[in-house]
Each structure stands twice: as structure tokens, then as C-alpha cells.
From TrEMBL:
SUPFAM superfamilies: SET domain. This is SET domain-containing protein. Residues 15-225 form the SET domain. One of its GO terms (molecular function) is protein-lysine N-methyltransferase activity.
Length: 375
């Protein structure tokens, strides 16, 4: 792998990529990351990637873009990774995660048994991701029937996990989700929710700048976004400890929605408060309290709270009692899921461990919320 990294850097340098005080390195259990090679100060530019080195819709082979006219940028970039014979890609591919690594880390590749054991939030995100992939694959398969689905899925996931937000004249009028670009070296940065480097682009280049000092050998991170662990797991194939990820949250929908009648659902939908009931490290969200209050109060009093003519604190004991029951049911399901997981032989041990970690992170949120209600 060291030889592949040096080949990548040599090729990237020939295209004008400037590396300053950092170097890609194989990190145990985490693929490749970027580490400081010397002391770095805050506000120091550590990487510049010229626009000409980016892989975007603009420099996708025209015959591929034409064959997939009207498809998403994600669809087209993934197809080009499969179909473009450009020899430069052969200098880049060796540092991509392997198919095995992708298959073991990303739920879309997991056995059905493990996918069924995903937490509610992750399961919902995976369903949306699978629908998106199926649509993209149908488009590509119609244009290129010789292409194998597994090959396209691998490339599709590479694009999904390694692209950066970027716009140019070809894409600035497209939907936000089409503002995508692949870039060498920069795609090796790992994610951290805090203490990360900033990334910015203009017409000439993508520039990465430190926000704090780094010591030699210290890993240098960027932030993929303010993502909860369900999102990180489904989209990128990893999670962070709840104590490290300030945006982690757990979905309460399966424990609240079935308790509401059709009329209550209609009323919540009418005022924009149906579903997306989330619990984070501090509290259950306001949407959750609105829904639980619907279960606890007569409709008139519930509406008065929503209209601001009744103090919501008057009903806090009732709402907290309802939330306590929700959390108790969630905790029981966590126990059941962990037991099923421990008795399963589906997938690889590493994959089962990743899923177990996610359930334990959710238990951390549920337990903390339960303790707050008891105090």
C-alpha cells in the first residue's frame, strides 16, 4: 500500500496538487488517513487541488454523459469509474477501499439478516439509499446492459462516500445533490466532528486549511457534515462513540407513531409534526413532545399549547411519563436486538461488531434520557 500511496502522490503532483506538511498513511483498522509530517500551525494551507484535477461532470467522457443524459451526477460519475479507460484512474484506484472493505462496512451490502437488525433510523436511511441506487442502476443498465450490477454498486458507493460538494458552470443550476466532485488525495481525509480542517473551493482550486495546531504524526481530519451515527453508518460505513459525536440521535418513530390514531396522525400532519421524533444526548426534540402531548391531552388543550395560550409546562409530568414508557420499550428492543445479533452468524464478525456498537450507542442515549426523567 505504501507504494500505491507514493504512486498516487507522484501522479497528483504532476497534475498540480500541492501537499504541505501532510502525508497519507495506512491506519490500523481504518484504511488510509492523512497525518501531519511536521508541526502544523492553525490557519495553514495543507492541501490544494486544482480544479483541473477534479473528476466532475464537466470532464466525464462525453459519450458516457450523453448516454446517461438526464441522469444524476452521482449516476454518471459512478458509471464513468466503471467505463472510462483513462490510465490515470489506474494510479488512483489502488488507494480506494477494497470491495471487501466496502461490503463489510456499508449496510447496503450486508446480508438481509443483519440489515433487518439495523436500528430504526438507520433502517429508514438505508431504504432511501437502496431506492436511490435501484433507480440509478436501472438507468445505467438500460444504457450499458453489459455492465455488471456488482461492479456498478462498488463504483456507486465510491462516489457516495468520497465526493466533495462542488459546483461549476456545468452544475451550479442542478439540484444540490448533484454538486459532486471526486478529488485525489483529499478523498483520503477521515471524518471528525470537531477539530477538523476546513475545505473551500473557487474557480481555481480546492483548498484545505487547518483550524488548530497539529503535532507530527497526528491525524488530520475534515468534517463530512453534522451527521448522527445512523447517517455515518449507512452513508460512510462507520460510527463514532456517542461521547465523541455531538450530533448523534436515535429515532423514536416506531415507539410513538403506532400509538396515535388515524385522526391524531392527520392532525399532526396538518401542522407539520408527523414523524421524525428524535432523541439526542440532551433531550427529546420538540416534535416528540408535541406528539406525546397529543397522546396525553384532550385535543382542545393540545391545540392551546400549540397556539401558545396554554403553558406546556403544565403538562410536563404527563409528557415525561409517556416518554419514559417509550424509552422503556426502546431499551427492551435494544436488548432483544443485541441478543439476536450475538447469536447470529450472518456476515463477518467485524460487521456484526459494528452493528452491535451502533445499538450500544443508542442505549447510551436512551439510558441517559431515562436517568434525566428519573431525577
Amino acid at each position: 500500500m505504501e507504494a500505491a500511496i507514493e504512486q498516487l502522490l507522484e501522479w497528483a503532483s504532476s497534475m498540480g496538487v500541492e501537499v504541505n506538511g501532510i502525508h497519507p498513511k495506512v491506519l490500523h483498522g481504518r484504511g488510509i488517513g492523512i497525518v501531519a509530517t511536521r508541526h502544523l500551525e492553525a490557519d495553514q494551507v495543507i492541501l490544494q487541488v486544482p480544479t483541473s484535477a477534479l473528476r466532475t461532470l464537466s470532464n466525464t467522457p462525453k459519450h458516457i454523459a450523453k448516454a446517461l443524459s438526464g441522469a444524476t451526477v452521482h449516476t454518471i460519475l459512478a458509471a464513468s469509474l466503471c467505463l472510462d479507460p483513462n490510465p490515470d484512474l489506474d494510479k488512483w484506484r489502488p488507494v480506494f477501499p477494497s470491495r471487501r472493505d466496502m461490503a463489510s462496512s456499508l449496510p447496503i451490502c450486508w446480508p438481509a439478516k443483519l440489515r433487518s437488525l439495523l436500528p430504526p433510523g438507520a433502517k429508514s436511511l438505508l431504504a432511501a439509499q437502496q431506492e436511490k441506487f435501484n433507480k440509478d442502476w436501472a438507468t445505467v443498465a438500460a444504457a450499458y446492459p453489459q455492465l455488471q450490477k456488482d461492479d456498478y454498486l462498488y463504483s456507486w458507493l465510491l462516489v457516495n462516500t468520497r465526493t466533495f460538494y462542488h459546483t461549476n458552470r456545468s452544475t451550479d443550476k442542478l439540484p444540490k445533490e448533484d454538486h459532486m466532485a471526486l478529488q485525489p488525495v483529499a478523498d483520503l481525509f477521515n471524518h471528525a466532528p470537531e477539530g477538523y480542517c476546513t475545505a473551500a473551493f473557487d474557480d481555481k482550486s480546492f483548498t484545505f486549511t487547518t483550524t488548530r495546531p497539529h503535532q507530527p504524526g497526528e491525524e488530520v481530519f475534515i468534517r463530512y457534515g453534522p451527521h448522527a451515527n445512523d447517517m455515518l453508518l449507512v452513508e460512510y460505513g462507520f460510527t463514532l462513540p456517542s461521547s465523541v459525536n455531538p450530533w448523534d440521535e436515535a429515532c423514536l418513530d416506531p415507539y410513538i407513531c403506532p400509538c396515535l390514531t388515524a385522526a391524531q396522525k392527520d392532525r399532526l400532519q396538518a401542522v407539520g409534526f408527523w414523524e421524525k421524533y428524535m432523541l439526542d444526548s440532551h433531550t427529546a426534540c420538540y416534535r416528540t413532545h408535541v406528539a406525546l402531548r397529543m397522546l396525553c391531552l384532550p385535543l382542545g388543550q393540545w391545540q392551546d399549547v400549540l397556539d401558545g395560550v396554554r403553558d406546556e409546562d403544565e403538562d410536563s409530568d404527563l409528557v415525561n411519563a409517556a416518554l419514559f414508557k417509550v424509552l422503556a420499550r426502546y431499551d427492551a428492543d435494544i436488548t432483544t436486538s443485541l441478543e439476536q445479533l450475538s447469536g447470529s452468524c450472518a456476515g463477518e464478525e467485524e460487521t456484526r461488531g459494528s452493528l452491535a456498537d451502533r445499538w450500544l450507542q443508542i442505549r447510551h442515549l436512551v439510558t441517559a434520557a431515562t436517568l434525566r426523567l428519573q431525577n
